[in-house]
Amino acid sequence: MPEKLSGNMLIAQGGGPTAVINSSLVGAVKQAKKYSNIKNIYGSLNGVNGIINENIVDLSGETDGNLDRISRAPASALLSTRDKADEEYCEKIFKVLKAHNIRFFFYIGGNDSSDTLRIVKEFETKEDYKIITVHIPKTVDNDLVLNDHTPGYPSAARFVAEAFVGLDLDNRSLPGVYIAVVMGRHAGFLTAASALARRYTDDGPHLIYLPERKFSEDNFVKDVQENYNRYGRCVIAVSEGIQDESGRLIAAKLTKNIEKDAHGNIQLSGSGSLADALSEHIKDNTDIGRVRSDTFGYLQRSFRTCVSKVDRKEAFEVGRKAVYYAADKNQSGSVTINRVGDYSVEYKLVELEKVAGKTKVMPDEFINDAGNNITEKFVKYLRPMLGADFVSGAARIRAEKIVKKL
Amino acid sequence: MPEKLSGNMLIAQGGGPTAVINSSLVGAVKQAKKYSNIKNIYGSLNGVNGIINENIVDLSGETDGNLDRISRAPASALLSTRDKADEEYCEKIFKVLKAHNIRFFFYIGGNDSSDTLRIVKEFETKEDYKIITVHIPKTVDNDLVLNDHTPGYPSAARFVAEAFVGLDLDNRSLPGVYIAVVMGRHAGFLTAASALARRYTDDGPHLIYLPERKFSEDNFVKDVQENYNRYGRCVIAVSEGIQDESGRLIAAKLTKNIEKDAHGNIQLSGSGSLADALSEHIKDNTDIGRVRSDTFGYLQRSFRTCVSKVDRKEAFEVGRKAVYYAADKNQSGSVTINRVGDYSVEYKLVELEKVAGKTKVMPDEFINDAGNNITEKFVKYLRPMLGADFVSGAARIRAEKIVKKL
């Protein structure tokens, strides 16, 4: 048996934060303390950006008490970055890792993070320095391939479902059309979670529009009018990433100032323009008086009072597993979550390139034929992830009407 | 001692729902079951609108189990209305009440509801029919006079505080300018609640703009730039009701399509335009790259996972007290909450006309001199209402930076 690699470890958090990304951080740090071949436990501030600038902290001395508190805090305790690391960037990363005798490098993030680790790992031969790189999955979009689901998604999904419970009851109290725009550029998983709000058959959301299906403004008006006629109201969940027949983002079509991020993507979150535009479209094309809209924005990935316990536990576990594969097995790769029971999961390590740069979207079996709602299969898929304490909908008054006298 | 009034009771819910308005409903219904002079317990659907249309249900048979579940559901279980009842409308109400032998009429709502009860009560002599009308306070805006605070406000305030905990950590992870628009047309209490998110001195929100102080777009840019220079980021809470020097709503100034509600008020909620406009203003007048904004919208009054236990209990109590005053004391009026300890409250009945049509705003001692933040006195005022389980901010990593090698 070859000798185990020995040296320091470095962990970093990248991309959009989630409500449980710190559980993965703490899971990894606590697990690392168990291995004698892991010396110092370092954390990089602001993701890969902190590596190339050597903004690195020594986490070895953090007390268990403080680690536990941090594991319950939303967002990235080590701070994050939107930097996308290319070859040149990754070479800089490698030189810093080598200079600090870092042999185990963990990056908590989406598929970009997995790609960064893949490129960094490739400098091993050139630099004649052995290194283990392990990707710890995270994304509220739930769009990583080879994963049943991804840490961060169940809590964001629970926020969306909890939000729609309240918003649907609010709309029932004061009826009209209500539209809420949910995060998810390419994958509709988070928007679809709104369906878990329903208890009674007339509960909203009555319509759900996903980026996996083309969005037609005309059909939208028809759908809304039809539901409004049936229920006297209509509650709608819309993904920020909906596109028209030609693949053009509805948000881009209807918004005047288009901003692009460092990855060249059109900025979708942090603006209410899509919701407002869809509202205007309904006002302009129907006689419905009360039309309101909201955009959930950054709330859905940072809200701390409806974190799924299942999600928190799994986030912790993928952090622990990553360190186990690295320190005990000397294996690089991406930790994945696989569903093996109803409900139970197993963790497996897959090659970094199998996850890097790929995007998973909602399978067809989760979307209804009309493309404006989800199926019961999706409900069955999501429900256990929200935690046993999640309850759809709310109780209603059962009393019967009295006889009119006037 | 005069004989106690005896007959049926009717209860209704009006205006914007809250997360605890059903606690008041259930408090009143449960209390009513204790009085032999209250016969049937009726509920009107959609507030006063259900009265004039005789859409009335008999709540007498609701089980305690279902009532308990309803008390925990957000929004108005009896549904609501935006109808503003004038003299003619109130006369219709009176005739329906009389036809159904209703002697006790309870309306859960804001100052408009108190005014409705005042007008209805005035038809007693003309119609030669004795009636007791009691107003049960409710409003997320916290703007009822003669009340230390109003049921619904603490839970909405807790939502805002919880939201800013997560949003500030999110912004700390990926720094920039972040603006969130909070409900509150005339009173800044709900926007001010964002301050309770802070634990560390550099925690956001760094700026808080209230309708009680004139908003200057130039000072806004200066304030944001100053905080951005100091912290490398800036998180801002803005009330939807902010106005310029001439008293014009900033939302109206910057929005093209202005919608007015049944009360002639400009529609503020249900649109992200103010947040987007303030974002654009910062982008246009500074060199700051990342500027994002959200509008909390209807989430803040309907979210069920961060309801304040103090608020839920007080909402229940004001419902009970209203029935006590009506059935036991045969007194009409508005139930008010008075703070008598730190923290303890007492309930008193005041005349309807003292609450009707009046609006309370933030006292000067709660706002800083610059008009862009709140004072410690406000924190002391709000904290106990959020419940003992509310925690400001979140733990941080304490680890120190390692020495750079490259």
Structure summary:
By secondary structure, chain A is an alpha/beta fold. Chain A has 2 domains: 7-139 and 307-355, 3-Layer(aba) Sandwich (Rossmann fold), CATH 3.40.50.450; 153-305 and 362-386, Phosphofructokinase domain (Rossmann fold, 3-Layer(aba) Sandwich), CATH 3.40.50.
Descriptive account of the structure:
Two copies of one chain form a homodimer. The N and C termini of chain A lie far apart (about 90 Å). By secondary structure, chain A is α/β, with parallel strands linked by helices. The mean pLDDT of chain A is about 95. Chain A has two domains: about 5-140 and about 305-355, Rossmann fold; about 155-305 and about 360-385, Phosphofructokinase domain (Rossmann fold). In chain A, the strands form two sheets. In chain A, strands 3-2-1-4-5-10-11 form a seven-stranded mixed beta sheet, sandwiched between helices. A four-stranded parallel beta sheet of chain A has the order 7-8-6-9, with helices on both faces. Chain A is built from 15 helices and eleven strands. Chain A is elongated, with a radius of gyration of 23 Å. In chain A, α9 (about 215-230) links the parallel β7 (about 205-210) and β8 (about 235-240). The interface between A and B is large, with 83 and 82 residues.
Quick tags:
homodimer, about 400 residues, alpha/beta, Rossmann fold, 2 domains, 7-stranded mixed sheet, 4-stranded parallel sheet, 15 helices, 11 strands, about 35% helix
